[in-house]
Every structure is written in C-alpha cells, then in structure tokens.
Design a protein that fits this description.
5 domains, 30 strands, alpha+beta, 6-stranded mixed beta sheet, about 20% strand, Ubiquitin-like (UB roll)
Length: about 675
C-alpha cells in the first residue's frame, strides 16, 4: 500500500541499499520499500501483505552521507508520510526514524536499515533464559489475506481461494486447509471485506480468524519429576509473554521415578492414572499461562514438551515399566509430533512436539539442556549437571559427548530428610556456622535478612519456619564439615557437645540443631548427612566415570542446571564434592537449561533439527554396568572426596584437616582413622 506515488528525482532508477544484509539494487519508479525488499530477498517481515495493518515492515531511515555505497541520502529520498502511516503511528506508535516499508516509496538513492524486530528470522534476546543466539524460525506462521468478492456461479471453493491468495500475496505455497481450518474458514471470511488471518504449518493452513490477528503463541514445558514449568511465547516475535510452574501431581504415586514405575507394576492400569495426572496438570498450566498473557487457547498453535524418559513415556501414554528394569529399553528415542488433542490438551489448533530422548535414563530434558548449552558447539570441554531427583550428566565438546544418569533421589530437594521441605516461603535456604562458637545463622525464603540481623523476627512473623529446603541442606552440611561438626566421612562429632549445646545426642548418634523456636526444633541428623552423602556420591561417581571414558583428569567449565541446581552456591558444591575440583569462577549456574532448550525448540525448527542430530551422537554410559562404579561411589562418599585433591577449592577457603571419627557412636566405639593399622 503506497500512499504517495511520485516521480523519482532523477532520470535514472533510484538505488536502494538494505543493511545489515548489504543487499542493494536499482528499482523501478513507484516501488515501495517492501516490494524492493522482496525482490532482493531482504529479510523484512510483513504479515498483512503490505496493507499497512501489521506494522512489521518498519525500516529505519536516516538522511546523510554513506560513502561506503557512494550515496548521499536526502530527506525526500522516500515519499512523504501518508494517511496510513499517520493512522498507524497514532494507533500503535512508531519511532521517529521509522517508516512502514509497505507505504514508503523509493524516490532517490537511499540506505535503509532493517531493525531486528522487523526481520522474519530475527534474533531473540532473553538473557534470563539464555536465548541470545536463537534465530526465529517457528513451525507456524500467520498471514493476513483478503479474498475477492464472492460472485454467484464461481466454481472455486474457499479452500482454493485461500491457497491462491496466500501464493499471490505472500508467495506462500500451501496445498490444503486441514479439517480445523475448514471448519472455521467461512466464518473467518464472512465480513464485508472478506479479510482474515490464517496460520500455516508446513503445506497446510491450520487455523483462521476473522480480521487481523497480531499474535499467535506457543508453549514450551519442562515436565520434571517434581515440578512442571512452562513458558508462553509469541511465535512471531519470540517474546515470552508469561511463565508459570506447579508441582507434578504424580508425586502422590511416588516421589522418585522408580516408585512411580513400581506403582504401575503393582497396579494394573496404573500407567493411565499417571498419564491423566500429568495431562491434567499440563492443561491447568496452559490455562494459567494463557490467562496471565490474556490470550485464548485457540491462539496456541505449538506446544513443545521435554522431560526425562519416564515422563516422556507417561505423557505420551506409553507404558513406562520397561524403563524400570534392565535393559531400560525406550519405546522410541525419536521426537514425536502429534495433534495436541491426542495428548488430551485443550488447544484445538496446536501440535505437540515431544523432544527426542537419548537412552533409557537420559531423556528429552537432557536433549534440551544440550541444545541450550551447546557442548556439541563448544571448542572446550563442558560438564553439564542437571541436578534433580534423577541427575543427568553430559560431558563433551564439539568432537564427542558422553551422557549418564545418576539416581540421586529426592534428598537434594529436601525430601526424606528429618527437617527437609520444598522451597516455599519460610523454608531455610541459606546457612552459615561460626567456626569458633558453632552457632548458626540463616536466611529464609520470604525475608532478605539473616537471622542474627535486627528486624529478622518481625520480617518472618507471618512465616512458618518449619524446615530446610534443598539449597539450605547443601549449605548446612557443607558448613558443618567446614566447622568440624562432621568429619570427612560425614560422622557427626559427638565430642563437640561439650563445646556447643547445638550438638545433641540422638540415640546412638548425634544431631546438629539449626533452629529452635516455639517448640519446633530443626536438626540435621546423622541420617540426614548420610542421605546427602549417598545422593552426592551417586552423582559424583557418574561424573568420574564420564571423565574416565573421555580420558580427562580435570575440568574448567562446569554448569549446574535445573531449578535446584540454579540455587546451589558453586563453592558449596565443591565443598561437598558434588562436582570435581575446578576453578571456582568456572562453576556456575545456568538456571533451567532444559526449559531454555524447550523454548529454543519452540521458536526454531532449525533448533529442533540441531537437537535431533546432536543427541544421536551422544554416547550413553550405563553406570550400573561400569566395573568401577562401586569404587568411585565409595570414594565420593567422603567430603569433598576420599582421594581426589582440591587445589582450586583450597585456594579460596581453608579445608579442615582430615581427622579420625569420634563420638559418632554413643557407645564410644572408635572408628578406625585413615592410616591406622588393621587390628589383628
């Protein structure tokens, strides 16, 4: 739509240069910027087909001298603003240096910049999810079209008219309208102007709405064994419109994955109960995301799901029991694409993309982590650890990648510990212990103050300090080790009861009191320490086995992923020996990398293909069959590790001397110290 068609200022055809692509050409008189961009193949967006409605074909124009192209652009190198641009500016607002490509006519030599937000394949910058290098390439695109007036005797069907108009107006080749679109097409084009917005996936029109619809959406979901987290995104801009999470209701069938598989084995038809539970939760999550963003479920056209192999199979309605026993055979490792209705999701036009798995215990969530962090794109070795109820480990670089899983259990998330709880308001999340007095101070979720700071009591008055969440458990056990309350073998030193009332007798062992008030005592017991040791030893043993296979003895890039991993202080991860010794600045949290990978796959078909290709080249190491697993596990029980040195950690803090265990048994039995001779 050109509001002003004027003769060019000179006899020769004007030259237009587009940046940042650098594409340029001479154009015929009366050519709009959008037409010129299309002829040159410039990446300039337009949903409405040049009708001045969508505003996505904006270009930046600054008069001036451009010696690189030998062009002196004047203010009148483009046609003056017309009514359409004026109306759009009043309705939507537009930066003063911008013009609508469908309205502005090229009158003289000019240099125009296509800003990122006007590019079809625009980069997405979402630092909180580390999406800075994603290029938009969604599976679904929307187009605004106007059909010619209907005349009695026309033989063409609505389907024929839509297909032809898409080709003529947008150069978009489709072969048909699917059933959902056919059911909508008459109503969508019923207005006097017969205008509608259609959505296209592949060679099919999948949906149609009356008039111009600016936004179509997609949802990316990470289905964890404990929590389900999702993001609703605008497929045209990559903008994250809303985010939400909820507990996985399958927890009532078992806190860990094997418990849920056991439930299915023990209860005929139990797999259906698990599937119904997670699908119900997904529908509730979708409703919450849509309500927050004020979009309808009809506007959700793509759903990407990632999760561990058992979650992958359960959400797809596949029996998970083969994954509960050797040889842990997947029904399929390939990505699955089906209509959302087949997963009983209430998004009538959406298609579900269930990401590929790697092996029986390394799933689509790990595939998404690989896509997000990109070890296969890295020239240096990365260690990726997705810490959760079942920890997934990936080690590799651009030449090779290894993966394993470790059954860490729910201890890291506070479950099955005497004072453990989920990360909710009032939970203790950070702990420090004075090395001299053995007194503890802490912070709770919901307050920014430490417990020994003025005003703390008032700030937590409305909170119920009833437990310690995962990050707090990690810190308090590490602090107990650094303060000498437990030794390198994890034994609570009962002889310290003489020094501090916080060390209390607990049957044949001892416990450490973190907090006591109003009759509530929160302690770290000997069994709690053991639970953390078992979990961290399983994780560390898996890492050590991958390093053996890779021929590595040291690491310089460790990334902690997952909702829980994002809250672990790297120093305390090293103190406990969760991960091998590494320069502390090189141990970092990358947040919910699985969720970030799912969003990448939602916004880019190319990213999906990259992920599918990458996971096929990952070598899965089955820790259960590794001959060295037991020895690695035993060595990893110690803090930080029984034999591996910790020079990088020692450079930032002083580690306790190795001591003989004493006082862990109320009967006075002394544990043999390292170096003692075997008794005859």
């Amino acid at each position: 739509m050109a509001d002003a068609l004027a003769e060019p200022n000179k006899a020769t055809m004007p030259r237009v240069v587009f940046t940042p692509s650098g594409l340029d050409a001479e154009v015929a008189p009366g050519t709009t910027v959008l037409q010129a961009a299309r002829e040159l193949g410039v990446d300039l967006d337009s949903v409405c087909g040049g009708r001045g409605i969508c505003g996505r074909c904006q270009v930046a124009f600054a008069p001036g001298s451009y010696p690189k192209w030998a062009i002196d652009a004047e203010a009148d190198s483009l046609s003056p603003w017309g009514e359409t641009e004026g109306a759009y500016e009043q309705r939507r607002g537009m930066k003063p240096d911008r013009r609508l490509g469908c309205c502005a006519v090229v009158l003289d030599d000019v240099v125009l910049d296509v800003p990122p937000e006007s590019q079809v394949h625009r980069p997405v910058v979402r630092k909180s999810l580390d999406l800075s290098d994603v290029t938009l390439d969604p599976a679904v695109h929307q187009y605004y079209i106007e059909l010619p007036p209907s005349v009695l005797g026309d033989a063409e069907s609505m389907s024929d008219l839509v297909v032809a108009e898409l080709q003529q107006t947008h150069g978009c080749t489709v072969t048909h309208l699917n059933l959902g679109a056919l059911q909508q097409v008459h109503k969508a084009f019923a207005g006097q102007d017969r205008a509608a917005t259609v959505a296209v996936r592949g060679d099919a029109v999948i949906a149609a709405w009356p008039g111009f619809v600016e936004r179509v959406c997609g949802i990316a979901v990470d289905i964890g064994s404990t929590t389900i987290a999702g993001h609703l995104c605008d497929l045209a801009t990559g903008e994250i419109l809303s985010s939400a999470g909820r507990m996985n209701p399958q927890i009532r069938f078992g806190e860990d994955l094997m418990s849920r598989v056991s439930y299915v084995m023990m209860n005929p038809g139990g797999e259906r109960n698990l599937t119904e539970a997670v699908r119900t939760a997904l529908n509730e999550l979708i409703d919450e995301l849509c309500d927050e963003a004020e979009v309808g479920a009809d506007d959700v056209l793509e759903i990407v799901l990632v999760g561990n192999p058992i979650m992958h199979h359960i959400v797809a309605g596949i029996d998970p029991t083969p994954l509960g026993q050797a040889p842990f055979t997947l029904a399929t490792a390939e990505a699955i694409s089906v209509a959302a209705s087949q997963f009983e999701l209430h998004c009538p036009h959406a298609e579900v993309y269930l990401a590929p798995c790697i092996a029986g215990h390394v799933g689509a969530d790990t595939a998404a982590v690989i896509l997000s962090e990109g070890p296969h794109r890295s020239s240096t070795v990365q260690l990726l650890v997705d810490v959760g109820t079942n920890a997934e480990i990936v080690l590799g670089d651009e030449t090779r990648q290894f993966a394993a899983s470790s059954p860490t259990g729910p201890a890291f998330e506070g479950a099955q510990l005497s004072c453990g709880q989920r990360a909710t308001a009032g939970a203790i999340e950070r702990v420090r212990i004075d090395r001299s007095t053995l007194e503890a101070r802490f912070k709770v979720i919901g307050s920014d103050l430490w417990s020994d700071e003025e005003g703390f009591a008032e700030s937590v008055e409305a909170l119920d300090i009833s437990g310690i969440c995962g990050s707090g458990i990690i810190e308090v056990v590490a602090e107990m080790y650094l303060a000498g309350i437990i030794d390198q073998d994890g034994v609570v030193q009962g002889n310290l009861a003489e020094r501090s009332p916080r060390i209390i007798a607990d049957r044949r062992t001892f416990s450490y009191v973190v907090h006591e008030a109003d009759g509530v005592r929160l302690c770290i017991t000997q069994n709690d320490v053991r639970a953390i040791q078992l979990a961290k030893a399983a994780l560390r043993a898996g890492i050590e086995l991958l390093m053996q296979h890779a021929g590595l003895t040291e690491l310089h890039d460790i990334r902690l992923a997952g909702a829980f991993g994002s809250h672990i202080d790297p120093v305390y991860a090293l103190v406990l020996g969760l991960v091998p010794d590494c320069p502390v600045p090189q141990v970092r949290s990358v947040g919910n990398a699985a969720g970030a990978g799912a969003v990448r796959a939602l916004l880019s078909v190319a990213a999906r293909r990259e992920m599918e290709h990458a996971v096929r080249h990952v070598l899965k190491i089955e820790t259960a069959t590794e001959p060295d697993f037991q020895s690695q596990f035993i060595a990893a029980m110690a803090f930080p590790h029984a034999v591996a040195p910790s020079p990088n950690l020692s450079a930032v803090l002083t580690l306790p001397e190795r001591i003989a265990s004493a006082g862990g048994d109320r009967g006075g039995r002394r544990r043999r110290a390292r170096g003692d001779k075997e008794e005859a």
